Amino acid sequence: MNKITRVVVIFIAQGAYTGRSPVAPGTAGTLAGVLLYLWMKGLSPVIYIIVCLLLFVLGTWVAGRAEDILGSKDHPSIVIDEIAGYMVSMFLVPPAWGFMIAGFLLFRFFDIVKPYPLKRFQELRGGPGVMLDDVGAGIYTNIVLQVVSRVLNI
């Protein structure tokens, strides 16, 4: 892999370098996800899900390459998975600040606790092992937010 490709892979995998935060890089990466969501929240559901799928595919590829470059499985600075997970969290959720904050907090909770079967996804090698547990945390978060929005009739 040439030097330019390596720089681009690391830049994307580290969420525009938010993953280099010396404290809580996963939380910093999720904040990058919030910024991306602010840009994407007005998109149609079809375009939103296409962007999420592309982000997942790109994230899986760069996460696997970044592991090779950084010499570590699921290196803490790789946060493209948090960005993708937050985007999944917010799919078809009302775009209100309360939901964005609740999505952030719930996503971080599920990402850290990794309820069944999310922890098992980490056992996978390469990019899928990096991405799938966070996308799963995003699905769990989305389910909770969908239930809350229905209960509150929003």
Write a brief structural summary.
It contains seven helices and no strands. By secondary structure, the chain is mainly α. Helix 5 (97-113) crosses helix 7.
User: Helix/strand/pairing class, anyone?
Assistant: mainly alpha
Distance N terminus to C terminus? 49 Å
Given the structure, what is the number of helices? Answer: 7
Mean pLDDT: 96
Radius of gyration: 15 Å
Profile the largest sheet.
Answer: none
CA-based shape:
globular
Helix content: over 70%
Uncertain segments of ≥5 residues (pLDDT<50)?
none
How many beta-strand runs?
0
Number of domains: 1
Strand content: under 5%
Order of helices and strands: HHHHHHH
Care to describe what's here?
- By secondary structure, the chain is mostly helical.
- It has one domain (3-151).
- Helix content is 71%, strand content 0%.
- It has seven helices and no strands.
- The protein has helices spanning 3-13, 25-40, 45-70, 80-89, 97-113, 118-121, 126-151.
- Helix 2 (25-40) packs across helix 4 (80-89) and helix 5 packs across helix 7.
- The radius of gyration is 15 Å and the shape is globular.
